[in-house]
Design brief:
This protein is of the alpha+beta class. Helix content is about 45%, strand content about 10%. The chain contains 16 helices and 14 strands. Strand 11 and strand 12 form a beta hairpin.
Length: about 450
């Protein structure tokens, strides 16, 4: 009766459907389709309303919201207008072209003429064609200076969506900025300015960048000079942070880690660095026993320095440079190359399919860091759930397994976990020990 009521029919109208799995109560209903022209308006408006737009805006007194104010709407089938109201605008046959090159209204005689008409009005309507234009122009400009363009797909998609009529231009910046870690320069130019950076064939950053403008200027040099003027303060900021950090050795930065909390119940980042150093030394000793060339003292030194750059101004401004900045500063401080290289490698792999650490000390740090995090977070009862993994424990576990398997390290994983637990539970009256000792007991049982 409830089933029938939900369908809006009488129970007597129901039928019995016999199947191999038993009899089912059913109802046969014919739903007639509606004309496409009657459905499209609601379909389009629903799609627009459900777009994941973080901040919508309204124009004037209109209550319609969108990422930007909508000026007009065209909805046609062949040469006929489909009558509808979309985003508060009555549909018609008139469209406008590029806002500067062709701002007037133009009549669309047939829906098939839409793309060609917009093309004549300086608007490349097709996203893929627009993206290919950008890629070809960027490559051509890079080839002129014998360089390769860095073109991340996400950035390319974003830039493609920002323009109607892409025109690529190449600009330059002062070569003195190249003393700054190129990762910082690339980061600020990509994230803040949406520029494509250029490197030589060896991957070294060159003092050029390519940007995409949305206008065919009569004087491109003015646009180039404007972009060079805008990017200069950005690069100068990175230069300032880099030089400021060099006023003290990398090791001196570890002092501030003693007051920076890694996790409330697991102590400071400095304490984590100490645990990483001890665990990395343990792993290094195991690798030595297997005949690998690795210096345990250098491994301990790398562990102590592993998180030092988190206190640097450069990483404070560009968090994605953690590890990378440490490697630069370690080399400037004349730390052993094995120590310096491992500071960047400790974070590898960063994502699925990423490269693994290559140096023995880098491998030790990468394993020690992840093991320490896994043991500690599990010990305080914050294991990942089906929907939450704030400490990326799954990624850490997969990283450990990839390193052990792909590097063919015959190291007992149980022994590594037990050693990581000891790092927390050792010491007199450790404030962390009370969280980890129960785990140690349960593990050994």
């Amino acid at each position: 009766m409830g089933f029938a009521k939900g369908l809006g029919i009488e129970a007597s109208e129901l039928i019995t459907i016999n199947t191999d799995k038993g009899d089912y109560v059913g109802y046969e209903q014919v739903i007639h389709g509606q004309a496409t022209t009657e459905l499209l308006a609601a379909i389009f408006q629903t799609a627009l309303d459900n777009l994941p737009i973080a901040k919508r805006m309204r124009s004037g007194a209109s209550r319609n919201e969108f990422v930007r104010p909508v000026q007009w709407a065209v909805l046609m089938q062949d040469s006929t207008v489909i009558d509808a109201t979309i985003q508060g605008h009555q549909t018609g046959t008139q469209t406008r072209g590029h806002r500067f090159h062709s701002p007037n209204y133009h009549e669309i005689a047939h829906a098939n003429d839409y793309e060609e008409l917009l093309g004549s009005l300086k608007v490349v309507a097709d996203f893929d064609k627009r993206q290919m234009l950008i890629k070809n122009q960027v490559k051509a400009l890079a080839d002129e200076v014998n360089a390769d363009a860095i073109v991340p797909q996400d950035l390319l998609d974003e830039v493609t969506a920002l323009v109607d009529f892409p025109i690529a231009l190449r600009a330059s910046f002062e070569p003195r900025f190249l003393q700054v870690p190129q990762e910082a320069l690339i980061s600020t130019m990509q994230a803040d300015q949406k520029y494509f950076c250029l490197t030589d064939k060896a991957g070294k950053l060159q003092p050029y960048f390519i940007f995409i403008t949305n206008i065919e200027s009569k004087d491109p040099n003015q646009i180039i000079e404007g972009n060079e003027k805008v990017v200069r303060p950005r690069l100068a900021d990175a230069e300032f942070f880099f030089l400021q950090d060099q006023k003290q050795p990398l090791f001196a930065l570890t002092e501030s880690l003693k007051t920076r909390v890694f996790q409330d119940k697991l102590g400071t980042i400095w304490e984590k660095s100490e645990r990483i150093a001890k665990l990395a030394a343990f792993i290094a000793a195991l690798m030595q026993q297997q005949g690998q060339q690795i210096d345990i003292d250098e491994t301990v030194r790398a562990g102590i320095l592993s998180k030092a750059d988190l206190a640097s101004s450069l990483v404070g401004e560009y968090p994605e440079l953690q590890g990378i900045a440490g490697t630069y500063y370690a080399r400037l401080n004349n730390e052993p190359e094995a120590v310096a290289a491992s500071l960047e490698e400790q974070y590898l792999p960063k994502f699925s399919g990423d490269v693994l650490p290559q140096t023995p000390i880098g491998i030790c740090l990468a394993l020690a860091d992840r093991l320490d995090t896994l043991v500690g977070i599990f010990a305080i009862g914050q294991a990942p759930t089906g929907s939450k993994d704030p400490f990326s424990l799954r990624r850490s576990a997969i990283g450990i397994l990839r390193i052990l398997i792909e590097k063919q390290l015959p190291i007992n994983l149980v022994a590594l976990v037990e050693q990581a637990i000891k790092g927390y539970s050792s010491g007199d009256g450790s404030k962390i020990a009370r969280w980890v000792i129960p785990l140690l007991k349960s593990w050994r049982s």
